[in-house]
Structure formats: structure tokens, C-alpha cells
């Protein structure tokens, strides 16, 4: 789907998610205790397949599998925040794109891996010339992802109340991403 990105932690790439073929893999990931903030801990396999079939059919939301050295290693969702997730919670600007990502559970710790994943995700999103700013809304309690977001240039805006959580609305422009990472977003 995109050109593989090399880093000291390996090569990363992104491909479209297949809701049927990837359902078992995703089910393992989203129900893992480390994925508590994904809010699918009790999901059955059919629930995961149904959720990602709905995303695949949605006009303003899509999902991708991220690969590390050719093997599935993370999940990424891209959405239009003017139509999905943040409707009525903030004023979208032209070029805004929403994002979620989840790294696969692993017993092997690779230093810098999650940062390489989010960098890959941001490069993928900014490869679209229409994307001017990435917007995220992680749970306010997810301190690890807040630090990671800030490391790649996200700036917190405010807490918003979503139906399922209190979220920290944050955004990152191409320029902020470049300043934080040194990676030129296409």
C-alpha cells in the first residue's frame, strides 16, 4: 500500500485491512489486556469482524494493518473527524484527518518500536497531500499514548466528553511533525 519505511527497528509498511481475513488476528489484539483503551476487551470474534466490516463499508472511516518486517504488527484507523468520532465536539478545519492506532501485543520488547509505529502512521497519513493536520482523541487516562503523541508533534488542546470516554483532543500539523521528528511529511 505504501513504500516501506526503514528505521533502526526494522522496516514498516501499511496495507488495507481485510475485515474477514484479519478478524482472528484483530480479535487477539483488541481483546488483549494491554489494549484496554481500545474498548473491545469483551468482544467476540464475530463482534470484531462486524465492527471492521462496518468500517470497511463506511464512507469516512477506514482501517489498515501495519507490517513490521513484513509481519502484521499494528492496527491503524483513519477517519474524517467532521463525520466520525468528533462530530459536534470541535470545529474541524479543512485537511483534518483523525487517527487511531494499536500495536499488537508482544512478549518481545524492541526499544523504539511504538515510536517507529506512530511515525509510520503519521507518514502514511501525511502522504495524502490533502491532509494538513492529524487529530486524535485518546482516553485522558492513557498517559503513555499522550507522551508518545507529544513526541511526534501532537499538541493537546482540551478534554472532550465522548459517549464512551473522556478524551484528550490533540492535533499535529505537518510542520509540527517535522519539527518533532525530523521526518519530512510528503
How would you describe this structure to a colleague?
- With 186 residues, the chain is an alpha+beta fold.
- The protein is built from 5 helices and 8 strands.
- It has helices at residues 23-30, 45-57, 113-126, 143-151, 174-181, and strands spanning 5-7, 10-16, 61-68, 71-79, 96-103, 133-136, 155-161, 166-173.
- Strands 1-2-3-4-5-6-8-7 form an 8-stranded mixed sheet, with helices on both faces.
- Helix 1 (23-30) crosses helix 2 (45-57).
- The radius of gyration is 15 Å and the shape is globular.
- The relative contact order is 0.15.
- The mean pLDDT is 92.
Task: Give the topology, please.
Elements: E1 5-7, E2 10-16, H1 23-30, H2 45-57, E3 61-68, E4 71-79, E5 96-103, H3 113-126, E6 133-136, H4 143-151, E7 155-161, E8 166-173, H5 174-181
Parallel strand pairs: 5-6
Antiparallel strand pairs: 1-2, 2-3, 3-4, 4-5, 6-8, 7-8
Brief overview:
With 186 residues, the protein is of the alpha+beta class. Helix content is 28%, strand content 29%. The protein contains five helices and eight strands.
Amino acid at each position: 500500500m505504501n513504500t516501506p519505511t526503514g528505521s533502526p527497528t526494522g522496516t514498516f509498511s501499511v496495507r488495507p485491512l481485510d475485515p474477514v481475513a484479519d478478524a482472528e488476528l484483530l480479535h487477539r489484539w483488541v481483546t488483549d489486556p494491554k489494549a484496554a483503551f481500545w474498548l473491545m476487551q469483551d468482544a467476540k470474534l464475530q463482534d470484531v469482524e462486524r465492527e471492521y466490516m462496518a468500517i470497511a463499508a463506511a464512507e469516512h472511516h477506514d482501517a489498515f494493518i501495519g507490517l513490521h518486517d513484513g509481519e502484521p504488527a499494528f492496527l491503524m484507523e483513519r477517519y474524517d473527524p467532521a463525520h466520525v468520532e468528533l462530530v459536534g465536539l470541535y470545529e474541524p478545519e479543512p485537511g483534518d484527518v483523525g487517527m487511531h492506532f494499536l500495536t499488537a501485543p508482544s512478549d518481545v520488547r524492541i526499544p523504539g518500536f511504538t515510536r517507529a509505529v506512530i511515525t509510520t502512521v503519521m507518514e502514511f497519513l501525511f502522504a495524502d497531500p490533502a491532509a494538513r493536520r492529524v487529530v486524535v482523541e485518546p482516553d485522558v487516562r492513557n498517559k503513555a499514548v499522550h507522551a508518545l503523541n507529544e513526541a511526534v508533534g501532537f499538541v493537546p488542546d482540551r478534554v472532550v466528553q465522548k459517549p464512551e470516554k473522556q478524551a484528550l483532543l490533540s492535533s499535529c500539523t505537518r510542520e509540527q511533525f517535522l519539527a518533532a521528528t525530523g521526518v519530512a511529511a510528503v
